[in-house]
Amino acid sequence: MCVFWLGSSPVSDRLPPPSIRGVSFSPPRHFPSALSFDLQSGALASDDALIFNAPETTTPSAAPAAPLAPAPLRYDRLVLPGDFPDPTIACIDGVYWASATSAEWGAVFPLFKSHDLVNWELVSHVFPDRLPAWCDSNFWAPEIFHENGKTYVYYTARKKGGVLSVAVASADRPEGPYTDHGPLVGEQAGSIDGFPIRDEHGVLHLVWKNDGNSRGEETPIWAQRINEKTLKLTGKRVELFRNDAPWEGTLVEGSAIVRHLDYFYMFYAGNACCGKYCTYAGGVARARSLMGPWEKCPQNPILTDNATWKCPGHGTVAEKDGRWFLLHHAYHVNSHEFVGRQGILSEFRWNAEGWPEFENNSPQAEALTDVTTLNVDEHFGGPELDLNWLWPVGHKPETELRNEQLHLTASAQRLGSIVARRTYAATYKAATTIDFAALPPGTFGGIGAIGDPYNALALVAGDGVLQLWHVKSGKRNVVTQVWLEGCDTLTLRIEAWGGQRYRFAYSTDGATWQPMPLDSFAINGTYLPPWDRGIRLGLIAYGDESTSVAFNHFALRNQR
């Protein structure tokens, strides 16, 4: 029999009980060993295939007197749910490929493929294991470029101890493996958002943003020729334009250029990209020559907020069957910075003046009506972790899957070793079961809501005690603890409401839940998301590197 007794310590950032109409968050009376608990009724979908299937949208109509042709498929939809900022898209041999910013989570730059622009499969990463030798952070804004049987990914990263730079990697196949060729440009203010494009004479150029806003300066968009043999810049750079319109605020960035009829069209973004107070929007400019002069659209911004999506922008153009699309990111109003910027496909048309127009000047994608399709049940039965698992960039932990358990090697650095999953909603439950009796002395295992390794709320067990950790700016405080005896396995659970309020519970028998004792109903987690990322749900192993933690299962149940 497992025996427990309680202890607690004070912590700030407490909140009163939430009042959310029509939603019950009481723990279930029975919690079976399969972890098949639910926030709402309905069958649970597995994500083992790693395929995001977006819901199809049809146009209702009255019954016609005679058969009518079916309405055209509406492509406006959420296609990359979760935190996938700055997405890129390219059509290679009839297959669409996409990637997005990884920021501070590995593996770096996910690679998705699709045959229809709607259903996307995660198949690999540009840098699945090791980072390029020259850089260590800020893995932003990849751009996929394919020519003559070769695939290139231009990307942003920060030099070790240095500045933000634009670099390039190449592969013989879109899925890789990729060879890195290092940085092309890194100005003192930083260089980001590289985009390759051939000019009207067929000469390859790199277009990028000077990150002057990081120093309170303007942000010119530059273009410079690429030496195709050395993959280095050559010749003189030319300024295409900079932020000079009121709506653009402190910056223009995220250039994506397409040639249509007699013009080059540059889709770009302006103003503040990220976080609760973002003001991002999308604009477009055009020129008959790549080197200009460039004319900004009089109707800018052409892509703005609506009641469902906030701060849309930074994307790449795709064409299918004569229809035009921008794959870009935006925050969903219900989850915002707690989930992050999600990948949306928005269709546009060319107007009589030759400018692109989005319907209602905003994303028309519907919110995902059934977030339970993104529920997760991970039993660790395969040969290795699937591609959806993440880790802090540069700190890939040692993992082994055997006997339907994940064995995660511990670390005493920061929060410990972490493997994590993206979140898809701001209200959810997540749980894991650990082999509590097998934990070595001084080793703790558990589950956490993680902004980064310096900011987290985690429920961890070890040395006969269960502790709730409040980690903020790298400082760890034990909020409360429960002493345990005689437990073989221990199931730990996180409940989140709106990304802001968190409660924690545990089960010693797989049937009943005990809440962690708190002085208030929930803990405030509004501090968790970094400025540019959503929250991850992580499994944690803290302790000496010679030890490990065994996890039996991981489950995520999305509510809204």
Automatic annotation (TrEMBL):
- On whether Hydrolase is a keyword of this UniProt record, the answer is yes
Q: Which GO terms describe its molecular function?
A: hydrolase activity, hydrolyzing O-glycosyl compounds
GO BP terms: namely: carbohydrate metabolic process
Q: Which UniProt keywords apply?
A: Glycosidase, Hydrolase
Q: Which residues form the active site?
A: 86 (proton acceptor), 253 (proton donor)
List, alphabetically, the InterPro entries matched.
ConA-like_dom_sf (IPR013320), GH43_C2 (IPR041542), Glyco_hydro_43 (IPR006710), Glyco_hydro_beta-prop_sf (IPR023296), Glycosyl_Hydrlase_43 (IPR051795)
SUPFAM superfamilies assigned: Arabinanase/levansucrase/invertase, Concanavalin A-like lectins/glucanases
Descriptive protein name: Family 43 glycosylhydrolase
Q: Write down the species.
A: Hymenobacter busanensis
